[in-house]
Amino acid sequence: MIAHYIIQSVFVLVGILSLMASVFNWEWFFTAHNSQFIVRALGRNKSRIFYAILGLAMIAAGIYFFLSVREAYK
């Protein structure tokens, strides 16, 4: 069961990272090799919105999984 909590924590932490990067417009995040595809396709401002939505979705998924696992083990 501890593995479930680790995976849920990773979802939430990555979601927070993505959300903070979009809010604070972190240069290192948007110039990283992995995010260049989105930045080139959408532009910097729209990619910030994309990563904010992605971050919120990952946080929501982590919370949903936490509640689901917690309910299953009652």
Structure description:
- This protein has one domain.
- Helix content is 85%, strand content 0%.
- It has helices spanning 2-24, 27-30, 36-42, 44-72.
- The longest helix has 29 residues, at 44-72.
- The chain starts with a helix and ends with a helix.
Beta percentage is under 5%
Question: What form results from the Cα inertia axes?
Answer: elongated
Q: In terms of structural class, how would the helical and strand content be classed?
A: mainly alpha
Strand element count? 0
How many domains would you count in the coordinates?
1
Mean pLDDT: 94
Order of helices and strands: HHHH
Helical percentage = over 70%
Low-confidence stretches: none
- Tell me the distance between the termini: 12 Å
Biggest β-sheet description: none
User: How many DSSP helices?
Assistant: 4
Q: Compute the CA-based radius of gyration.
A: 15 Å
Layout of helices and strands:
Layout: H1 2-24, H2 27-30, H3 36-42, H4 44-72
Helix pairs in contact: 1-4, 3-4
What is the gist of this entry?
With 74 residues, the protein is an all-alpha fold. The chain has helices at residues 2-24, 27-30, 36-42, 44-72.
List keywords for this structure.
74 residues, mainly alpha, 4 helices
